[in-house]
Every structure is written in C-alpha cells, then in structure tokens.
Amino acid sequence: MLPPSWVPGAAVGILSLHFVQKLLFPYFWADLGYLLKVLTYGLRMEMYRLQGRVVTVLDKFVTLAKKQPHKPFLIYEGTVHTYRDVDRRSNRIAQVFLQHEALKKGDTVALLMGNEPDFIHVWFGLAKLGCVVAFLNFNVRFRSLLHCVSSCEPKILVVGADLLGTLEEILPKLQKDVSVWIMAKDSRFPGVHTLLDKIGVASEDPVPVNRCSANNLKSAVLYIFTSGTTGLPKAAVISHLQILKGAAGLWAFGATSEDIIYITLPLYHSAASLLGIGGCIELGATCVLKKKFSASQFWSDCRRYNVTVIQYIGELCRYLCNQPVKEGEKNHKVRLAVGNGVRNDVWREFLDRFGAVKICEFYGATEGNICFMNHTGKIGSVGRTNFFYKLFFPFDLIKYDFQKDEPIRNKHGWCEKVKKGEAGLLISKVNAKNPFFGYAGSKRHTEKKLLYEVFKKGDLYFNTGDLMVQDHDNFLYFWDRIGDTFRWKGENVATTEVSDVIVMLDFIQEANVYGVSVPDHEGKAGMASLILKHNASLDLEQMYKQVVTYLPSYACPLFLRVQEKMEMTGTFKQQKFRLVDEGFNPSTITDPLYFLDNSKKAYVLLTKELHEKILSGKMKL
Questions:
Q1: Band of residue 31 on the pLDDT scale cut at 50, 70, 90
Q2: What is the DSSP-derived secondary structure letter of residue 583?
Q3: Which fold has domain 485-616?
Q4: Please, where are the H alpha helices in 25-116?
Q5: Domains of the chain: which residue ranges?
Q6: Is the pLDDT assigned to residue 381 strictly greater than 80?
Q7: pLDDT of res. 43
Q8: 55-292 and 385-481 agree in CATH topology
Q9: Would you give the distance in Å from CA 368 to the centre of its chain?
Q10: Which residues pair with 399 in a beta bridge?
Q11: What is the mean pLDDT of residues 476-504?
Q12: Strand pairing category for 309-313 and 336-340
C-alpha cells in the first residue's frame, strides 16, 4: 500500500528545514538544550521558594548522608571518606566549637588550610553552626595575610598542621580578640587552642538544626578572597544563592552521580570549593582530592581512581602537555574537563594527545553575577550567548579608554556598546535575580566595582574588569584584564601589592609592576621597572630575599628593569603600556635587565643568551 501523497512532500519539507537550520542556526539544538537546563534549575529553586523552603548545598549534603551513607564522598591519598563519615566528623567539629567557643549564628571563622579532608570537615562543621567561613589563600604571607584576616573580622582562625610556620609569622601581630585553633593534638604557641584532641572525644550528634537553617538564599555564607583589579586581596561575599549556582556547573555540563571528579586545584579557590565540592554534592557523586597538583602523577591518579571528570585552569593543561610523552596516554576514563583559561593551541594539543575529552570552558568571576559556559565545545571560546540567555542574564560589552583607564562615555554621558568582533569591557546588569553581593569590610571596594547610569538613568551594572570579544556567531572570547592586575600560574597578581613590597627596600624610590607575555606560557609574567634612590645601588640579594619572603611565589617578579625616570600618564599614573610592549628583550632595551633564576635562588643579569633560553623554553619559569 502506497503512503498518502502528502507524506513525501512533508518528508522533503522536514529535510529542507533541517538543512536550513544546520546552515543558518547550526547551534540551535545545543543552545536549546543548555537553555532548558538553566530554566530547569531556575524553576526548581523557584518551587522551593514558593513552598517556603530554603534548600542550601549543605542541606543537600546532609540529605545525601542519610540517603547514601556508604557511598564514597571523598577519596584522599587512597583513604575513602563516605558521605556518612564526612557528615559525622563535621558534626564532631561543630560540637567542639559549640562547647568551647561562644560562636553566634552569622559569626565569621577564618580557615587557613591546605587541601585535605579536614578542610571540608571544618568548613561543613562551622556551616552547621550557621557561621560564615572565610577561605584564606595559604600562599599569601605576612602583611597581606594579616590584611585578609582583619578584613573579614573573624572570631576564630583555624590553621592546618602544615601551615604552623605561616601562623608563627603573623601571630605576634594578629588581633588579640581572634581566638586561634590549630589542627593538632598539642600546641607550642601560648594561648593557641588544639582541635584534633577535642574532635576525638566529641559527640557525633548533629547540632540543633536551627543553627544552620537559612532564612534567605541571599545571606552570606562564605568569604572567598580575590585580588580584584587593584590592591590587596578582597573578601568577596558569597551567598547561598551563589553556591547553588556554582554547584550546578558540573550538572549543566552533563556530569552525573556516577562520575568521579578529580580536584587538584586549591580549595580556597571558588573553582575547587563551589564548582568542585559543591558540584559533587549537587550530583551526589564522588570526589578525589589531591593535596597539590602533580603533572607527573595526574594521569596515573586518574587511572587508579577511575576518574571521569577533571577540573583545570589553563596552566594545568599546559603542564600536562609539557610532560614527556608516555605509552597509553589515552588509556583513561576521563570524559569531561571543566575549567577556564586554556589557550587554543594547548586545547588542540590536549585533545590530540589525551583523547576524546570534552573541554568544558566557562567564564565567571568569584564575586561576579554573570557566568558563561561553552556548551558546544568551540575551541577558544569561554561561552555563548543568544537572545534568551540575555533575557535572563543581561550583560553588554562597552567601549573602554585604555589611557584614562575608564569606560568611554559619549557627549550625553552614556556608555557605548562595541560592535561584534571588537573588544569591550564586560558589564553585567545588577537586579533582584542577578544581585552583586560585594566585598566584606570597606564599602569603597564594593562601590568601585559598580557602574551607575550606563545606558539610562537609574540603571546599575557590575564591572567585571575583563575585556571580551563577541563574534558574529555569538561566541564569547576572553581578551584581557583591565586595571592593575595580571594573571600568572593560574593566579591573579595585583601589581600594587607587589610594588608595596618592593618599595619597602631602602634603595628603591619607585616600582612600576606590570605583566609581560612570554611565548608558550598562559597569562603574563611579572616584571618590575625600578627607580633607585639618589646615590643608591641595586642590591640584588636583598631584592630576592624581599620578594620571596613577602610575596606568594606566583607574584614574585620574574624580570627587573632599572630606569632613570618613571614615565607617567597625563593623570599622574604610572605609564605601563610602552613598558608592556617592550617586554624583556635585552637586544632592544638599553636599561639594565635582570631575571629571577629559581635554580640559583637569585636575580641574575638578563643576557641575550639567557633571553634566548627563556624564549626557547629551555629555561624553566
């Protein structure tokens, strides 16, 4: 029996529509799938709100500990910690602080610990008491660390056993009203409390539920430090809402409860804590936690623990690609790699060398209210936008004046949008659905991140400090950072912080710090242009001691340039643009140049031969 006469016509029509869609709207189905996921998650949260329920990531964890108590939650150095184990140990820590400290709901506790299970136990235990937990960057030292502690005004500081040397540095200058606890059974510091001995005898019973119950998703629950665009680190206020959004990232990229996620990034970073740990809880999955990233052990760990999802920053991927080629490098179960900052060439090399891993690049600032996700796998892009996405998450790219270091405004005082293909400053609208929670401490820092009356009277936008490009297919690409910050070794380096450390030396008059590009390296390496005091000479030994003592390793300037006179802009700011362009080439720069040679633990004269070694990759940076 022949089909009705309209069937062939309909088939041709459907086929034609398919080809038209492929030709004119090639990403339609991928966009629709991603948008539906975003809507699904948003509707789920809205349902909770309508039911009068405030469900946090911690609530979800406690539920999972009852639902799947024996499932591994954390695997650390071969030891398995089940959901029940982590729940019970965090209860013990909550009980210790309930008995020994007069902590009120909403009090802040600062956490200075490396990657280890007790970081999570302490974090969850304090969260169960309704405390705001401040994650301190363990690479930050002395003055900067004291600043971080004071800016979040903690009642308690909890320090890991492997960071007692750092504690010893700051203890004499730490505010006397901060109670200090260490993850040890005994203490050599007078007045410092020990935690491990008390955990062992504490009750595993949950603390009263009213201590941790949240009344509002917009209330603060964490402080995560960011260098921002200028100055010392700032404590970004992280709400329950932001944690929930961050925790949904792995799920949005297609991860499931069956996945095993490998976290090598530091837990004080939002990528590891919110996306990684939070993401594991959202999925009900298992996490393999590493004390510190190791390129040589990375793939053997992935095979050993049957890892299926990895987290990365751009540098991490490059380190893996720089490892000597071995047999069976594609012999692993990793299917997703989630992160940001990977360069196009490294992206391609990574896929060629390590197999069919889906690279899930995303963009999002710790304190920001905008996020992009590259759900199509387009190489080089941080994400994609469309009409519907902008309805839910309004943003724009605006023209920026690099000389004046501010957005360009037209004769009417309004900002102007860039055309597609042009670099512009990414700004995101602040509203009830996409709030900006700002920073702890000084309101001045929060105000500096906001732009008022951008396109019309009364509008308000968050200034990301990032320059982006949107192409004609609506893919977004990260272009650069504005202000006094550059990125190196996966960390933001605030130039003002580095300058402050250098000018403490009695032979330095002025220091102008900036980032310079180095071939085959992500980000920018630190360089300092120096003006010496009258009749003073450069003491390279003192310079080396100063930077390694007071700065994190990634913030130590790799290059020094000694100048006679500091160039200034018309608004009396240090001129960086020409210095950045000139880089560190001794063939074209007549000023004396020096290089931080880590193998010699000293600054050495930067010769043409040494310059060639750096460019060729023979000298490790």
A1: confident
A2: T
A3: GMP Synthetase; Chain A, domain 3 (3.30.300)
A4: 28-50, 57-67, 83-100
A5: 55-292, 385-481, 485-616
A6: yes
A7: 82
A8: no
A9: 11
A10: none
A11: 83
A12: parallel
Count of C-beta atoms within a 10 Å radius of residue 375: 23
Per-residue pLDDT band for 230 (boundaries 50, 70, 90) equals very low
Is 313 in contact with 271 (CB distance < 8 Å)? yes
Q: What fold characterizes domain 385-481?
A: Luciferase; domain 3 (2.30.38)
User: What is the distance between the alpha carbons of residues 435 and 368, in angstroms, rounded to a whole number?
Assistant: 9
Residue 366 has pLDDT above 90, yes or no: no
Rounded to whole angstroms, how far apart are CA atoms 215 and 245?
18
Angle between helices 540-550 and 142-152 (to 10 degrees): 30
Please report which confidence band the pLDDT of residue 229 belongs to, taking 50, 70 and 90 as the band edges. very low
Task: Report which DSSP code applies to 541.
Answer: H
User: Residue 303's closest CA among 277, 329, 336?
Assistant: 329
Q: Which of 345-349, 374-378, 440-444, 504-508 has the lowest mean pLDDT?
A: 440-444
Q: Is residue 441 very low, low, confident or very high in pLDDT (cuts 50, 70, 90)?
A: confident
Nearest residue to 120 (alpha-carbon basis) of 166, 154, 74: 74
Q: Which CATH class is domain 55-292?
A: alpha beta
463: tokens are 């200034």
Q: Which long-range contacts (CB under 8 A, 24 or more apart) does 513-519 make?
A: 513/557, 514/486, 514/576, 514/579, 514/580, 515/486, 515/487, 515/488, 515/580, 516/559, 516/580, 516/583, 516/584, 517/583, 518/614, 518/615, 518/621, 519/615, 519/617
- On whether the CB atoms of residues 308 and 284 are closer than 8 A, the answer is no
Q: Are 256 and 283 in contact (CB under 8 A)?
A: yes
Which two structure tokens, joined as six digits, stand for 453?
Answer: 């009356």
Which pTM does this prediction carry? 0.85
The pLDDT, as a whole number, for residue 271 is 93
Give the 3-state secondary structure of 440-458. CCCHHHHHHCEEECCCCCC
